[in-house]
TrEMBL record:
Keywords: Coiled coil. This is rRNA processing. The keyword Coiled coil applies. It holds the Pfam family rRNA_processing. Residues 34-43 have a biased composition (Basic residues). It comes from the Eukaryota. Residues 78-112 form a coiled coil. It comes from Nesidiocoris tenuis. InterPro entries: Fyv7/TAP26. Residues 17-33, 58-73 have a biased composition (Basic and acidic residues). Residues 1-74 are annotated as: Disordered.
Length: 154
């Protein structure tokens, strides 16, 4: 049963196909003819799309669905590498911007802290003519602290 379904192996044909230069040249010519035929068909399709019923550009423009569906093209290795490089550059740029933003926020917070500390120190360091500390400023600072704690708790 296996012998009937399988054709018999012909070693002579195999050798010719594998090693004979004339057969190899003929195969190359056939392959080249096939490629040229495909290119010609593609070019004719571009020049005169109405001759091909499967693809009609008017259908695509009008919004009607056609039976022709394009296959998504594979990107070449170079294009893939370029896209990957662009993505990496974009992520680097985003990270750089985030770092700069964070640095500016920290600098702004530090500046606010220093200004506040300077003001409190001015108030606390005020003295009378005789060198005694002024209680008015200290009481004002305590009052502001109490206001903040009461305001946040309620």
């Amino acid at each position: 049963m296996d012998q009937q379904s399988k054709p018999k192996f012909d070693k002579k044909k195999w050798r010719e196909k594998k090693y004979d230069r004339k057969v190899q040249a003929k195969d190359r010519e056939d392959k080249q003819k096939f490629i040229l035929k495909q290119k010609l068909q593609r070019q004719l399709k571009k020049e005169n799309p109405s001759a091909y019923p499967l693809f009609n550009p008017d259908d695509l423009r009008s919004g009607a669905e056609s039976s022709y569906q394009e296959k998504p093209r594979k990107l070449s290795q170079i294009k893939m590498a370029q896209l990957e490089y662009k993505k990496k550059q974009e992520t680097k740029q985003k990270m750089r911007e985030q770092r700069l933003k964070k640095k500016e926020e920290i600098a702004q917070a530090l500046q606010n802290y220093r200004l506040k500390k300077l003001e409190t120190n001015k108030v606390l360091n005020k003295k009378t003519k005789r060198g005694q500390p002024l209680m008015k400023g200290r009481m004002q600072l305590l009052f502001e602290k109490v206001k903040q704690t009461v305001g946040t708790s309620s």
